[in-house]
C-alpha cells in the first residue's frame, strides 16, 4: 500500500477503504509516513471531506493507536461533557461538581487553550497547587472518593490524534468537520465514559462560525458515538458574545465559584443547567429534563455542589480556601475601565476578538510554549442588549502592564453601540 495512491484517491474524491485509513494512521504514528505526505492528505480531506464511514474509521484507528481507560470497576454511570471551545466558556468547572453532587460519576479529561479560546486546565491551574497531570490509579481513586475529576489525559491516549493535530495546527487544516470529529471522539471513547453531552459552539467566538456547520459537526460527533454504542447527544449553544462576564483564568474560576454559590450570571447558569439536566437524564437520575434542572438547582441552593467542588480541589492538591477567598489566586496590578463614548444599546460583541484581547494581556497562548499570566483578563459590565450611558464602564481590563492602548483599541473596535439590539438565543438546537 502506497501513501501516494491514498493521497491521489482523496484528492480525486474517492472514498478511502478502512484498510487505507488504518494504514495511514498506524504508519504516520510510527513515523513511516513523512509530514509532507500527511500534510497533503490532510489538505485533500479539508477540501473534499470524508464520508460518515470514513470519519468513523478514522476515529477508531486513532482510538486504537494508544491506551484506553477502563472505568468499569467504578460503580455508577460515568457521564462526561465536552465543549468545542469558546470565550468565557468555563461551564465544565462548576458543572462537574454539580452533577457529581447529584449522584453521577463525572470523569472529565480536558485540554489547554490556544489563541482566543481558553482551556479548562489552564483555568484550574490558577488555583494554587491544583494538579491536572494525574496517573490512572489516582484518576480512578478520585472518581470513587469524590465522584468527579477534571484532569489532562492519562497514559498514552490517542497518540495518533496528538501527532495529527499538531500537523493540522501548522497546515491550516484545523477547521475540517471530519478531522475535528475524529479528534474529539477518539479521545472521548478512549476515556471510558458511558454517556456524553457535546456542547458545540456557534458564532463569532467559535470554530464553527455559522449554525449550519455547527449542526454538521454535532451530527458527525453524535453518529460516531452512537456507532460504538455510546449514549450521546449534542447541544448547539451560542458564542456570538462571551459566556458569562469573566474572560481570563483566575477571573473565570472566581465566576465559577460565584455560580455554585447561587450568584453566577444568568447565561452561564442557564447553559450549566441545560447541559447538566441532559447528563442527569442520560445517567438515570432524572426522568425528565425539568426534574433534572430542579435537582441541580437544589444542589446549588443547599451548598452541596460547592462542597463537592471544594473536595475536588483538595483531592487534586489545590488550596481549597479559594472557595472563600478567590484573592489567593494571582491578582492583576491594574484594573482599567473602558468607558463608553456614547449612549445607546450594546448591539454586538465580537467574541473571538475579546478573547484575543485577553490573550494579548498574557491570559492566553499564541503558541503552545507561551507562559500564561493567570491574573489578567476582562470582566464585562455590559453585554448585548444592555443600555449604556455615555461615561459608563463597558468592561474592566485586568492587566499587569499599565499601557494597554493596543488592547483598548481592539476592544473598542469590537463592541458596537447602537439604538436597538437583536436578542441572542443561547440554545440554538439539540441534536440526538
Automatic annotation (TrEMBL):
Keywords: Glycosyltransferase, Transferase. GO terms for molecular function: 1,4-alpha-oligoglucan phosphorylase activity; thymidine phosphorylase activity. It is an enzyme of class 2 (transferase). SMART domains: PYNP_C (SM00941). One of its GO terms (cellular component) is cytosol. Its EC number is 2.4.2.2. It holds the Pfam family Glycos_trans_3N. Residues 345-418 form the Pyrimidine nucleoside phosphorylase C-terminal domain. The keyword Transferase applies. One of its GO terms (biological process) is pyrimidine nucleoside metabolic process. Homodimer. Belongs to the thymidine/pyrimidine-nucleoside phosphorylase family. This is Pyrimidine-nucleoside phosphorylase. The lineage of its organism: Bacteria, Bacillati, Actinomycetota, Actinomycetes, Bifidobacteriales.
Amino acid at each position: 500500500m502506497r501513501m501516494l495512491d491514498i493521497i491521489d484517491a482523496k484528492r480525486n474524491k474517492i472514498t478511502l477503504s478502512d484498510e487505507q485509513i488504518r494504514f495511514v494512521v498506524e504508519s504516520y504514528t510510527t513515523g513511516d509516513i513523512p509530514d509532507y505526505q500527511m500534510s497533503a492528505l490532510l489538505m485533500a480531506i479539508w477540501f473534499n471531506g470524508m464520508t460518515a464511514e470514513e470519519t468513523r474509521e478514522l476515529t477508531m484507528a486513532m482510538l486504537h493507536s494508544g491506551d484506553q481507560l477502563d472505568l468499569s470497576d467504578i460503580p455508577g454511570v460515568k457521564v462526561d461533557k465536552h465543549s468545542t471551545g469558546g470565550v468565557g466558556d468555563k461551564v465544565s468547572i462548576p458543572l462537574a461538581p454539580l452533577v457529581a453532587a447529584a449522584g453521577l460519576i463525572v470523569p472529565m479529561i480536558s485540554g489547554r487553550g490556544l489563541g482566543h479560546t481558553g482551556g479548562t486546565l489552564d483555568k484550574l491551574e490558577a488555583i494554587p497547587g491544583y494538579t491536572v497531570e494525574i496517573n490512572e490509579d489516582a484518576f480512578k481513586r478520585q472518581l470513587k472518593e469524590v465522584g468527579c475529576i477534571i484532569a489532562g489525559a492519562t497514559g498514552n491516549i490517542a497518540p495518533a490524534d496528538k501527532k495529527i493535530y499538531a500537523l493540522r495546527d501548522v497546515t491550516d487544516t484545523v477547521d475540517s468537520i471530519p478531522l475535528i470529529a475524529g479528534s474529539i471522539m477518539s479521545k472521548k471513547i478512549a476515556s471510558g465514559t458511558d454517556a456524553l453531552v457535546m456542547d458545540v459552539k456557534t458564532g463569532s467566538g467559535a470554530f464553527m462560525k455559522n449554525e449550519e456547520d455547527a449542526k454538521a459537526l454535532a451530527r458527525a460527533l453524535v453518529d460516531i458515538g452512537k456507532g460504538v454504542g455510546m449514549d450521546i447527544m449534542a447541544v448547539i449553544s451560542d458564542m456570538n458574545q462571551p459566556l458569562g462576564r469573566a474572560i481570563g483564568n483566575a477571573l473565570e474560576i472566581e465566576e465559577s465559584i460565584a455560580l455554585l454559590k447561587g450568584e453566577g450570571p444568568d447565561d452561564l447558569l442557564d447553559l450549566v443547567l441545560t447541559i447538566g439536566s441532559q447528563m442527569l437524564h442520560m445517567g438515570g437520575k432524572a426522568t425528565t429534563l425539568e426534574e433534572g434542572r430542579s435537582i441541580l438547582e437544589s444542589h446549588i441552593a443547599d451548598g452541596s455542589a460547592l462542597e463537592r467542588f471544594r473536595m475536588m480541589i483538595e483531592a487534586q492538591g489545590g488550596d481549597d480556601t479559594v472557595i472563600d477567598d478567590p484573592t489567593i489566586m494571582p491578582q492583576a496590578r491594574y484594573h482599567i475601565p473602558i468607558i463608553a463614548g456614547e449612549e445607546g444599546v450594546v448591539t454586538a460583541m465580537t467574541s473571538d476578538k475579546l478573547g484575543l484581547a485577553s490573550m494579548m494581556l498574557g491570559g492566553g497562548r499564541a503558541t503552545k510554549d507561551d507562559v500564561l499570566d493567570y491574573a489578567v483578563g476582562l470582566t464585562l459590565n455590559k453585554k448585548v442588549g444592555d443600555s449604556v450611558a455615555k461615561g459608563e464602564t463597558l468592561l474592566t481590563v485586568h492587566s499587569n502592564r499599565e499601557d494597554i492602548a493596543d488592547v483598548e483599541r481592539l476592544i473598542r473596535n469590537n463592541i458596537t453601540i447602537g439604538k436597538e439590539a437583536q436578542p441572542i438565543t443561547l440554545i440554538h438546537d439539540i441534536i440526538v
